[in-house]
Specification:
The chain contains no helices and eleven strands. It has strands at 3-7, 10-13, 18-25, 33-39, 46-51, 58-60, 68-73, 78-83, 92-100, 103-106, 110-115. The strands form two sheets. Strands 2, 4, 5, 6, 9, 10 and 11 form a seven-stranded mixed β-sheet that branches. The protein has a four-stranded antiparallel β-sheet with strand order 1-3-8-7, with no helix packed on it. Strand 7 (68-73) and strand 8 (78-83) form a beta hairpin. The protein is globular.
């Protein structure tokens, strides 16, 4: 089992920034691709950003390109999501996900609320 613990969520005004962290334990973090997904009230959980095991390539949903940056520090077993120029439509619970072949682990989520 891998345990994932998100932190860094909160309330921010539109145009502001937050940095989410996802601390992993229990498995070899560097073997897993990492991702961030979010779920707004009444909507399905959707992809936000992902990063490969070595951290060399990252990919983003069109809605966050140019504003969000995913990164990872394999020495610290932690993935990050830097969110800039936040918009009210970014309000959601943000979840960290770790994937390795058919294995998939989730964190408990952290709330991000962007006020207009």
């Amino acid at each position: 089992q891998m345990q994932l613990l998100e932190s860094g969520g909160g309330l921010v005004q539109a145009g502001g920034a937050l940095r989410l962290s996802c601390a992993a334990s229990g498995r070899t973090f560097s073997s897993y691709a990492m991702g961030w997904l979010r779920q707004a009230p009444g909507k399905e959980r959707g992809f936000v950003a992902g990063i490969i095991r070595g951290g060399g390539s990252a990919y983003y949903a069109d809605s966050v390109k140019g504003r969000f940056t995913i990164s990872r520090d394999n020495a610290k077993n932690t993935a990050y999501l830097q969110m800039n120029s936040l918009k009210p439509e970014d309000t959601a619970v943000y979840y960290c996900n770790a994937r390795f072949h058919t294995l998939s682990y989730w964190g408990q989520g952290t709330q991000v609320t962007v006020s207009s």
